[in-house]
Write a structure and sequence with these properties.
By secondary structure, the protein is mainly beta. The protein has 6 helices and 18 strands. The protein is globular and about 70 Å long.
């Protein structure tokens, strides 16, 4: 979810608050509100693509507004081999906006048994769903604080309200294979990263500037008996690409939309909170493989309240191949999902060290304007694997995940990113839907950016910190109190915030390592 926030380099110090950018998977990516589960219109039966198959033990993360992905990060979507929910995945109820997912009828009518706090609204939901119309409303609210480290210590409150509407055209107008999805959100409060710490791996997948805006607005058509789908309209790539189901449990934004594209792409790329016009194609050659490709507007910024629909800011292209291991109901082995992919952006990108005159940007004799590099790209790999299934259960056990990616160092602040971790669903006796997770994220500052810091020291005669890398550890526990309420205490520790960025309060010192405590609640209305 969420674009990263970084403290300025020594040669460009400015107030911390002025540096905030929109961010997102949630990351894993987008950890905003995963409404999809509560608001996707049922569609005609289609083959599941690898990324859509739910792995056992995936945490309860309500899939996001627009198609059903991760958030906190976003989680994979509507059931394709790799999109089936993996066993032991967390109960995906948080994360940045994703798309609609098929929720089905209410499981019970009692307050503690129903899937949504407001229930069936006197039969209104059922009547609308019978006609192919599904709506959702979800609020995520959280408190985070850093008792130690960062630029300053303190606590914040922030939240995000997600609204979505999904339409099944076959049920509504007898037009088979069509889906319409509309989602919007209202973000409130202020973020810990932007106000207190300045870490590259943003503390929360829902942290973003306060706003109310349209998020996604698209139409999807299924073809060839569901083996091909085409989606056209305003979309967020973090809802389907570079996602990890097990990583979706974590609240740090780097486990949603990864920190590398969030910092390197214009405005963080097409990810929460900024969707942009585009076209996405998905092809399912067989039960184990799915192929996804998307072409989007190259810079999602300056789209007003989400209604500008700009098409003239370059091109962002992303492709991904997904393979599902042991994904069928009759499979005897432990299931997993593996993905490889890459992206390309056609815009110009500023050199991280040199001006267009060939001199260092820190050189007082230089022009001070960076050399522009044409285009940008990255390659990545993702793995989700169940490694232990509790005997006698289908959906409890230990799942592990890893994501790794790289990009050119001359035009990017972060040129290498890795995160990995493990989740254990059902670790506490009697709490079969609760999930414990431990994860680590690592972002490496490019050599070109580090050498600019060295140049700054050489020309100024000062001893400012030199940025190298940032690491974050996260320990989290998601408790499913009722089907419509989850509570998630969280602990994070950030080593070298901003990559060892200069502290605006004491510029010759690096921002101190930060301990972070937090608590998130998610309510599905």
């Amino acid at each position: 979810m969420f674009k990263g926030y970084a403290l300025p380099a020594p040669h460009e110090r400015r107030p911390l608050r002025a540096m905030t950018r929109s961010h997102g998977r949630a990351g894993a990516g987008l950890t905003l509100l995963l409404l999809s589960g509560a608001m996707a219109a049922p569609a005609a039966a289609q083959p599941a693509s690898p990324s859509e198959q739910s792995l056992p033990g995936v945490p309860q993360v309500r899939q996001q507004p627009a198609q059903g992905s991760t958030g906190g990060n976003p989680s994979p979507q509507e059931a394709a081999p790799s999109e089936d929910t993996l066993p032991a995945s967390p109960e995906q109820r948080q994360q940045a906006p994703a798309g609609p997912a098929d929720q089905g009828p209410e499981k019970g009518t009692g307050l503690l048994e129903r899937d949504r706090l407001l229930g069936d609204l006197g039969g209104l939901r059922t009547k609308l769903e019978d006609k192919g119309i599904t709506f959702g409303l979800q609020e995520q609210a959280e408190v985070f604080g850093n008792p130690t480290g960062g630029v300053r210590q303190g606590a914040i409150f922030e939240g995000a309200l997600l609204m979505s509407l999904a339409v099944d055209t076959e049920k509504l107008v007898s037009f088979p294979g069509g889906k319409i999805n509309v989602s919007a959100y209202q973000i409130h409060g202020r973020g810990l990263t932007a106000n207190n710490i300045g870490n590259l791996n943003v503390t929360s997948g829902i942290e973003a500037p306060k706003t109310t805006r349209l998020f996604e607005l698209w139409y999807e058509q299924s073809l060839a008996d569901g083996k091909v789908t085409v989606r056209v309209g305003q979309q967020a790539a973090d809802q389907e690409f570079i996602t990890s189901q097990y990583g979706a449990l974590f609240l740090n934004a780097g486990f949603g939309w990864p920190t590398l594209p969030a910092l390197d792409l214009p405005s963080g790329g097409p990810a929460y909170p900024l969707a942009t016009p585009g076209v996405r194609l998905k092809v399912l050659p067989n039960d184990q493989v799915s192929v996804l490709a998307g072409v989007y507007n190259g810079d999602p910024s300056d789209n007003g309240a989400g209604t500008s629909f700009r098409l003239n800011r370059g091109v962002f292209v992303i492709g991904e191949v997904q393979y599902a291991l042991n994904g069928g109901e009759d499979a005897t082995g432990l299931p997993g999902i593996y993905k490889i992919g890459g992206w390309y952006n056609s815009n110009n990108f500023a050199d991280q060290r040199f001006g267009y005159d060939g001199l260092s940007l820190a050189d007082p004799e230089g022009v001070g304007a960076p050399r522009l590099r044409r285009n940008n790209w990255s390659i990545y790999a993702v793995a989700d694997q169940l490694v232990l299934r509790e005997p006698g259960t289908r959906d409890q056990g230990i799942g592990v995940f890893a994501r790794v990616m790289g990009a050119p160092g001359d035009r990017n602040l972060v040129n290498f990113f890795l995160n990995a971790g493990a989740t254990y669903k059902g670790i506490v006796p009697g709490r079969v839907n609760d999930t414990l997770g431990l994860g680590i994220g690592f972002a490496r500052v490019s050599d070109r950016a580090s050498k600019l810091d060295s140049d700054t020291n050489r020309f100024s005669g000062s001893l400012f910190p030199i940025r190298r890398s940032e690491t974050v550890l996260e320990l989290t526990y998601q408790a499913v109190v009722t089907p419509w309420l989850t509570v998630q205490p969280d602990f994070q520790y950030v080593f070298n915030p901003g990559g060892s960025a200069s502290n605006p309060v004491a510029p010759t010192r690096a921002v101190g390592d930060a301990a972070i405590l937090g608590l998130r609640t998610t309510i599905v209305f």
